[in-house]
């Protein structure tokens, strides 16, 4: 036969050959390969084993055939293993019986390989802040893996949500909340307890699933999951609607009780700064030392300037003569601190007592604009200062608008 001239080989099967074959639940290597067209194996295994190669893929698209195959293969056993199936336990991988050659045993990991039941659901989260309670709805996806009866829960990630999202429950067997942990040692001795972990028979639409203290409400499932549950004899409930993600705020009982009482006036910490920044009350005063001995005549009634800062209720007292000479250029600005008699601070009305505890500071009262009237005596740490005149027009308008004072005649002291 000349090269290039001969009988053409028609190939219709391009599947990759499997290197293992399951016989009675045990993976065994195949002796020879598969022909390109017929797909027959040249080994000692029965032909019935080889004709069911496509049966491993049928259950991925036909849930009814999957359950029927499982019933025909696993449920027809002796009474001991039949009771195990009825109890909800998984069949053993290595069966202690002689398998029928016409019905090969398929292990659970192969029968349910990569098959997942998917449910849509949500859970509530209550948050309390500023006397209000708010209930937020968080949607989730619950996946049940049939090959090993594990569960995972994921929450869709919302950008800039400020809270952890994504994987809420990693994939593993989840204990039921009603399981008694005191009997865990007994369960290990008496083999696995079917009521200990969540099973796919316990999942249904419009039902609650408690996982680690958090209750998930299942609202819907995909079409494959619905067909799988219905083929197993489970009546799937109708889908439910997910509540609103942002329901209106509701006051709790304590906040409702406060709302019925008289409203409390609460000042913002920046309100006073925004209203009175840069506003200063200016007064002319004298340090009255006429009752003291060994004091020079020019020091008995020495003039000073008192400034009251409305933004933080502080007082500063400076030498009036020094400020006047500084304005005329007799003193440089570097000597400005020499004119300060009392640095800017809050001034108590009475001499401050010796404080033995922080509670003593709450009883101290400080001077306010109502105390700064013409003719009043202001005690400054044991010194007597008498207010004799107002310093500027802003000070007079402030007292005229807030305290109805109209007489600003300077006080004459003898």
From TrEMBL:
Name by which UniProt lists this protein: DM10 domain-containing protein
Domain of life: Eukaryota
PANTHER family: EF-HAND DOMAIN C-TERMINAL CONTAINING PROTEIN (PTHR12086), EF-HAND DOMAIN-CONTAINING PROTEIN 1 (PTHR12086:SF9)
Subcellular location: Cytoplasm, Cytoskeleton, Cilium axoneme
Cellular component, GO, one term: axoneme
Source organism: Daphnia galeata
Domain spans labelled DM10: 113-233, 277-403
One GO term of the biological process aspect: mitotic cytokinesis
GO molecular function, one term: alpha-tubulin binding
Region (Disordered): 239-266
Protein keywords: Cell projection, Cytoplasm, Cytoskeleton, Repeat
């Amino acid at each position: 036969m000349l090269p290039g001239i001969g009988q053409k080989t028609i190939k219709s099967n391009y599947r990759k050959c499997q290197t293992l074959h399951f016989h009675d639940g045990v993976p065994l290597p195949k002796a020879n390969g598969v022909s390109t067209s017929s797909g027959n194996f040249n080994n000692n295994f029965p032909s019935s084993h080889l004709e069911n190669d496509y049966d491993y893929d049928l259950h991925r698209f036909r849930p009814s055939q999957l359950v029927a195959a499982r019933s025909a293969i696993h449920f027809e056993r002796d009474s001991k293993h039949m009771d195990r199936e009825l109890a909800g336990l998984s069949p053993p991988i290595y069966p202690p019986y002689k398998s029928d050659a016409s019905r090969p045993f398929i292990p659970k990991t192969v029968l349910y390989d990569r098959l997942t039941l998917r449910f849509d659901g949500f859970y509530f989260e209550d948050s309390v802040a500023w006397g209000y309670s708010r209930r937020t709805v968080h949607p989730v996806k619950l996946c049940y893996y049939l090959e090993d009866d594990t569960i995972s829960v994921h929450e869709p990630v919302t950008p800039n949500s400020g809270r952890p999202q994504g994987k809420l429950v990693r994939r593993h067997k989840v204990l039921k909340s009603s399981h008694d942990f005191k009997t865990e040692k007994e369960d290990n001795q008496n083999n696995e307890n079917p009521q200990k972990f969540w099973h796919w028979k316990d999942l249904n639409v419009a039902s609650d699933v408690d996982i680690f203290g958090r209750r998930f409400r299942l609202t819907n499932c995909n079409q494959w999951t619905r067909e799988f549950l219905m083929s197993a004899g489970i009546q799937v409930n109708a889908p439910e609607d997910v509540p609103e993600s942002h329901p209106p705020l509701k006051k709790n009982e304590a906040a409702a009780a406060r709302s019925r009482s008289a409203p409390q006036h609460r000042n913002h910490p920046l309100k006073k700064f925004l209203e009175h920044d840069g506003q200063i009350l200016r007064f002319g005063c004298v340090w009255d030392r006429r009752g003291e001995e060994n004091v020079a005549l020019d020091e008995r009634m020495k003039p000073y300037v008192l400034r009251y800062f409305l933004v933080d209720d502080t007082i500063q007292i400076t030498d009036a003569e020094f400020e006047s000479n500084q304005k005329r250029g007799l003193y440089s600005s570097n000597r400005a601190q020499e004119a300060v008699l009392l640095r800017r601070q809050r001034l108590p009305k009475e001499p401050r007592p010796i404080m033995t505890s922080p509670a003593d500071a709450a009883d101290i009262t400080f001077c306010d604009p109502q105390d700064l009237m013409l003719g009043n005596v202001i005690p400054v740490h044991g010194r007597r200062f008498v207010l004799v005149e107002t310093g500027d027009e802003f000070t007079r308008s402030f007292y005229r608008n807030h305290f109805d004072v109209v007489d600003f005649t300077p006080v004459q002291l003898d």
